[in-house]
Specification:
CATH architecture of the largest domain: 3-Layer(aba) Sandwich
Number of strands: 31
CATH class of the largest domain: Alpha Beta
Strand content: 25-35%
CATH topology of the largest domain: Molybdenum Cofactor Biosythetic Enzyme, Chain A
Strand order of the largest sheet: 2-3-21-23-24-20-16-19
Bound molecules: adenosine monophosphate, magnesium ion
Oligomer: single chain
Distance between the termini: 21 Å
């Protein structure tokens, strides 16, 4: 915790956590902490490969190799202003008059050099004439024929020196950086017309449940609109991967098996629903009976039931069906797995959230034995980030994920009190 303020809960809380945790049956670890879950998932990382794209197609792609500059930036000493290139020593007395020997223009012929008592007209970005060491802004000059009167300061600071930004061979864009517009411009500045980026892994998304119907269609009794696959697809894409969204599967082992077999050709599979304790939790059952499970249940609230394993060798996350839970588990488990697998840069790579320290404006209950991620609204005030809660926190309440913009990261068995500074995720 950021402020070191923790409020341990009394031990009656442990009753809630005594489900099989830390047990391992048939190689399956049950009730693991988040760190352990990520460690186990990393035994089956996404495969990483790369390909070349030109700069026009590089937006939001991720660099697979660092980029070094192919040129000095700037390439030569040049002017930061439109004006006159002069010798500073000529311009010490006010209203000095110099004779104009020519013009230096960006992309033009090499300019003439200047001697004492001379000046050369110069444009922004044009090379500095031999013999000059300062620039006078055009606003501070008065031209009469081939003579110029200097009415303002001659500044060396208006010269952009060769390689003052970057030298040839200098690495300026690291491996794993998300190519923002500024990164793309810098790649161009450095002379790269083509950049090598990480191939987008194809991640299959499969919702499960007899009750699910795609939005936009008339509902029959007992049916609800399916939303998880849409949320997961956009999260997958925000993490730099290609989402392969499949229509939702019914709660039938045969249908599930056939669909999973089809999707096993992708680089990974995300399912939602069917991983709890119920009789109809068939993702868990089919993975137990026919797949390989590394862990089942993670000590998270919300989002306790996820499992991870492989189906026909393809990594598979079985995410909870409750809409908030599936989103939250993606944030804390799947996104870091993608980022680590593909070697995303910690600061500059694709990410969905930022870790921040927030001051609680109200008491917030933690969870016995689990990392507690309550939805919070984070706002900046007087140089601090303040956190409050608004709507109710049910794991089926998707509106709460929109009414809030963050999640607490209260450690297991720890309540937050008004005024505490705690760690949180600010969702971007
Ligand atoms: P399950 O884990 O399958 O028992 O699902 C838990 C809850 O989440 C149930 O109320 C489901 O109706 C709901 N649910 C499961 N999958 C989805 C989905 N794809 N979209 C919206 N709600 C879902
Ligand atoms: Mg279900």
């Amino acid at each position: 915790m950021a402020g070191g303020l923790t409020h341990p809960r009394p031990s009656f809380a442990m009753r809630e956590t005594d489900f099989n945790h830390r047990q391992s049956r048939g190689g399956v670890e049950h009730g693991v902490y988040l760190d352990r879950a990520l460690e186990l998932a990393m035994r089956h990382p996404l495969r990483r490969s790369s390909h070349d794209v030109d700069l026009d197609s590089a937006r939001n792609r991720v660099l697979s190799h660092s980029l070094e500059s192919l040129v000095d930036d700037p390439r030569f000493d040049n002017s930061a202003m439109d004006g006159f290139a002069v010798r500073a020593s000529d311009c010490i007395t006010p209203k000095v008059e110099l004779s104009i020997v020519g013009t230096s223009q960006a992309g033009g012929d090499p300019p003439p050099g200047i001697s004492a008592g001379e000046a050369c007209r110069i444009m922004t970005g044009a090379p500095l004439p031999e013999g000059s060491d300062a620039i006078v802004m055009v606003e501070d000059t008065e031209v009469r024929g081939d003579r110029v009167t200097i009415n303002g300061p001659a500044r060396m600071g208006y010269i952009r020196k060769r390689a003052e930004n970057l030298s040839i061979g200098q690495e300026a864009l690291p491996t794993g950086a998300l190519l923002s517009p500024a990164c793309i411009a810098l790649a161009g500045t450095m002379g790269h017309g083509v950049v090598r980026v990480i191939q987008k892994p194809r991640i299959a998304i499969l919702s499960t449940g007899d009750e699910l119907v795609q939005p936009g269609v008339r509902l029959e009794a007992g049916q609800i609109y399916e939303s998880n696959s849409h949320a997961l697809a956009s999260l997958v894409e925000a993490m730099g991967c290609e989402a392969v969204r499949h229509e939702s599967a019914n709660d039938s082992l045969d249908e599930l098996r056939d669909t999973l077999d089809t999707l096993a050709g992708c680089d990974a599979i995300l399912t939602s629903g069917g991983v709890s304790m119920g009789d109809w939790d068939l993702v868990r059952r089919i993975m137990e009976e026919e797949g390989e499970i590394s862990f089942w249940r993670v000590r998270l609230r919300p989002g306790g039931p996820p499992l991870f394993g492989t189906w026909r060798g393809t990594p598979l996350f079985g995410l909870p069906g409750n809409p908030v839970s599936s989103l939250v588990v993606f944030h804390v488990l799947v996104a870091p797995w993608i980022a680590k697998s593909l070697g995303y840069h910690e600061e500059m790579g694709p990410r969905l959230s930022r870790r921040v320290s927030v001051t609680l404006e109200e008491d917030i209950l933690g969870a016995p034995g689990k990392l507690c991620m309550r939805r919070i609204r984070i706002r900046s005030e007087d140089g601090r980030l303040l956190a409050t809660t608004h709507t109710h926190q049910g794991s089926g309440n998707m509106h709460s994920m929109v009414a809030h913009n963050g999640l607490t990261l209260l450690p297991p068995d720890t309540d937050g009190r008004r005024g505490d500074i705690i760690e949180a995720m600010w969702i971007l």
